[in-house]
Amino acid sequence: MKRIVQSLAVTGALAFASVPVFASNGSAPQDLTAKVRHELVMIPYYSVFDDLNYRVDNGVVTLSGEVTQPVVKDDALRSVKHLAGVTQVIDNIKVLPLSPFDSRIRAAEYRSIYGFGGLYRYGMGTQPSIHIIVENGHVTLVGVVDNQNDKNTAYIRANSVPGVFSVTNNLRVVEQN
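User: That's the sequence. What structure does it adopt?
Assistant: Structure tokens below.
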């Protein structure tokens, strides 16, 4: 009797193990969206001064945003184009103009925002959550912060940098459950 129970237990365990634990729920667009996001985050020269966005619609991936280096744009297009399920890639990525003036502002904005005691934690990790986009002296903050106070603080810190013409605060506040 003991052998029969053991045999049934082993058979049941093998049958359970043959079912995939992380099976797809059949929503290929969700899977493709996750793959596109992963590929974009893995671009080697993607930095805090770049902003890449994407939209997936029936296999058509639309890339948009602003980057500081043409190689980031090329890598984004190349990495997404070869994903299974992608039928077309639409390129709306803008390469920001090279400017020593903008480069100086980028460095100053980085120090002002991430050097501040209350905001330094957003700069930790490989992909900081506050991205600083500078074009012709105009600054745009994009990304995600924990609360409205951090959003306001980042905006104030960005406005304190000399030589900045304007600051647009497009930071989103994470919804707390």
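Strands lie at 51-57, 60-67, 88-95, 130-135, 138-145, 166-173.
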